[in-house]
Amino acid sequence: MFTPTEITEIQKLLTPNHNIVIITHYNPDGDAIGSSLGLKHFLKAKGLEADVIVPNDFPKFLKWMPEAKQIIIADYKRKQAGEAIYNADVIFILDFNASHRSGHLVAPWIEKARAKKILIDHHQQPDNFDFIYSDVTVPATSQMIYHFIQELNEEHLVNKDIAECLYTGIMTDTGGFRFRSTSATTHRITANLIEKGADPAMITSNTWDTNTVSRLHLLALILGRIEVVKDGKVAILWLKRDELKEFGFQKGDTEGFVNYGLSIMGTQVSAFFMEDLYDDFVKISFRSKEDVDVNQFSRKYFNGGGHINAAGGKYMKTIEETIVDFKEKIEQEDF
Question: Which residues form the DDH domain (predicted)?
């Protein structure tokens, strides 16, 4: 957490005469959007205005959240996003640990910005910023935003909008409270958010009960060809670019696909490989159980990283070559 001195300094920055910007990572997920909007609504409850900027668009199933439509998508509104960052006095960096995780467009703006930069994130090995709250044991950045509010002694300001956004972020990043990092503290916080107005049934329905025809077609395709290797410990799922196009892929359609590999009895690791829709590289998602560290595995071999049990990567080969290389790499690992 922030030290008492840092909290005092941050409180001095959070004033109406300061321009405040909130930025999250490229390809924003539920925790990225939930923590960003949750913080925005908290600042609003304090009488402050803040712009939320995301590098690129985010899935439709997250756009129900309060004021999601006011988020500035840098890919679509470059001038507005660039000017907001340039004029910012305070920049909150949420759910990513290094500037380059915000993509080639936004990252240089962050690095050149004169603003005080406040990092709140739960990924390993954060870059250096003016203020850093980094804790890899916390399952979601949205939970860290709640802790930040507690540190400011302003928990009483948490309202329905804040509660809905933070609950969504925690729910999605814990896999519906299934992952090991979900703690008693996590459940106490979500209970508080429910008391403040978050409706778990509504949030779950709006966020997860949103299948499209394209998503179901793609899911049927990968489930029909799951491959299990390494004596049943590793599941492999994959999709090619022409398959995405054939079934009318939309952003967010493959969300959660990697988790199906872990649902197979005996598996310790699930790996999902997908060709990028436009560029010649393969996007990779890893999930694992117990103490199997896919973060270090991804950093070591696939230009990525993340958490012990959830990580991503990027590989500049064909999907066939990527899967062959993956199979070779996992034989060198003790899991």
Answer: 19-170
